[in-house]
Structures are given as C-alpha cells and as structure tokens.
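It is worth pausing here to work through a concrete case rather than discussing structure prediction in the abstract. The textbook approach is simple: state the sequence, then state the predicted structure, then interpret. We follow exactly that order.
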Amino acid sequence: MDRVSFPRMVELDVVTGLPPRKMLDHDLPVLLRSMGTAGLPMCSIMIDIDHFKKFNDRYGHDIGDLVLKHVSSIIREAVKFRGEAYRYGGEEITVLMLNSSGPEGLATAERICSAVENSVVKAVVRGKEQPLSIQISLGVASTGSVAGSELIVCSDQALYNAKSAGRNQAVLFKKGNSKDVSTTVIDVHFPSRSAILGGNYILLKKWFSFSNPTDIEAREIKDPNTDSSEFADGPPPPYGFVKAEIRGRVSEIERRGNHTYFKFEVKSEIIDLMFKYIQDTRNAAN
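Step two, the predicted structure:
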C-alpha cells in the first residue's frame, strides 16, 4: 500500500512551493485509509486569501504571486511534520492534518490566520518598497464528525461560512449549522481543442459575452493544478475581452472538431460580478 510521509518530497508548484493538486488527490485516500485503520481522526483545512484579486489588479500578477508564495510558506511551516499544505487551485490552499480532531484543527487554523495577519510582504512597487498586509479565511472539518468522502467538501463549506461571516477568521464545520452554497452552470465555448477534463477546477482568464453571463466564449483558460494555460484564436468581440479570472468546475465537456464546449459550474454569487465585468468592459469601449 502507498505510504505518505511529511513533508512531501515531490515536484512542487512553481509559484507556491507547495505540492500540487494532483498530489492532494493521490494522498487524501491513502491518508484516510491509514487514519481509519488506526482509529484516528484527520482534519482538512481549506484556505483562501481574502480579496486576492486586488493584489493582481492593483500591483500586477508578479506581486500577486509573491503574496501567494508568502502565505503558502507560513502555512506549510505551521503544519510541518503533522501534515501538509497543497495548492488546491488559484489562491486556495488545502491542509491535511493527521491525528487531529475538529477543535485541534480549528486551533491550528486560528494560529495560521493570526500569523498571516501579523506578517508583512515587502514588495517593490514602481521602484519603491511597499509593505502589504494580508488576511485569509479558513474552513475546518474533521473525520471525527464527517465522513472521509465529505472531508474536503465540508471544509470548503466552512470556508464559505468564514467568508460570509466577514473573512479573516477560521470556522469549524458543524452539521446543521452551515449555509447551502448555490451554484449556477455556465455554457462556455472555447474555439480550440482543449485538454481539460470533466470534474477539473479551472480558471477562465480571457472571455466575453454579448449579454448573458451564463453563455460566454473563452479565449484563455488555465489549469491551476499544472499552472498551464490554453489559448484560442478568433475574431475579437466588439466590446473587447473581460480579463477578470473566474474559477469554477467543469461538469460536462463536448469536443466538436477543433472546438470545445463545456458546462462550467460556479458559485451563484459570481454571476452578478460577471455581469458587472461585462458592463464595465462595454462602458470602457464606448
């Protein structure tokens, strides 16, 4: 049977310095079996950098990557030898902790939250050094209260609750004390043959819609697990492209010749934001 030891000595994500999503997908079932056999609990902590988009928009992607790497190093150091931190996708990080109950996982998450808030990134912006403050939100779930198959989903639900409650905090998942996360399915046309697979989380990087944010065409998509992007050619839209990143899950996919069509599942709250992006792009073009 596969064995997992920490820290993971694998090829690391180039931006965060963490094991990539494919390693998380490998390790999770192995660790669940190991802890289940030993009768010990296991925690998952889902982490997201609050308002991460502002770093990319205001300072550029190089600064955004610097922030992501800084946060990742703090998280990995905090769980060293007890678990591992993985890049889940985009600015989201997943921590797996062995022999950890829900309260223990929450205490670790709160320490990480405080450590990040009390740290400073010294970035060079327009030739001048500028300190940047960062905050994160965290969601915790433990096999002591949820099934192993639900561990990631429940910690992600707790993360959503932490953000809904004001961000910059850690929340422990409790059954019957969570809000349902509604999702909306978007139809996406990518005018090229793509290697993406159903079930994958991806980012839409360059896209447009003539009016309806649930029916769009994408010209650049990115797989955050491999940090690779795919591009498609075609005539430019009359109002230009939206370049704001949209994260979601590919639920269905169909390839027709050199075109790829897929269903893209996003949180429903994103739709209003997408509509705003479309309107802002149109206004800027007029």
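Step three, interpretation. The CA atoms of residues 77 and 87 lie 14 Å apart. The helical segments are 21-38, 52-59, 61-78, 102-117, 151-164, 269-285.
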